[in-house]
Amino acid sequence: MASESAEDPKVAAAVAAAEAAGPPSGESVRIDSWIWSVRLVKTRSLGAAACKGGHVRVNGERVKPSHSLRVGDEVRLRAETRERVVVVKRLIRKRVGAPVAVQCYIDNSPPPPPREAVAPAGIRDRGTGRPTKRDRREMERLRGLGGPTPFGGHAGPGGPGSGGDPGAAPGGTGRRGRPIGHETTGGRKARGKGTGGTARP
Questions:
Q1: Which among 70, 92, 113, 145 is placed 20 to 30 Å from 37, CA to CA?
Q2: CA pair distance 38, 102, nearest whole angstrom
Q3: pTM recorded for the entire structure
């Protein structure tokens, strides 16, 4: 390790910062403080909650937030959507940056799952625009919506086999809510003589 730090000034600086963040000689470091300091959890309270919930194991055993950590201990932590497995190299109790944090442990974590395995159905990448009708049908199928009904067609917001109000007239409605069957081709009611309507007074 000494030769590595001598070759790379950045690594040497990270090691020095990690050692400076360590506890005074003879003092121990709590597990909830350590996993927060090396950036395995976002806050110390989350680290304590993970310990209380049984999501943190040291050398295979569930531990309390106050458990004292030692160099060489294996820490297993279930964080968000992946499991972290690290071996303690340095004990620190102050939160440090990512380049310094990686100098405090050996990372034996399994690779993270692919993005497709953790992304919920219906989430679209940014910049892809609005979904097409085909995209919407596919998302509804994934969510368990739609599908054929006993009367044919597909179930929609308005009920089986229709996309609107189930109590609407068969002909539908036009502008201003008037039934389409009551309108002429021109879209206006017939008025005047010779058209069957009544002339205006």
A1: 113
A2: 7
A3: 0.53
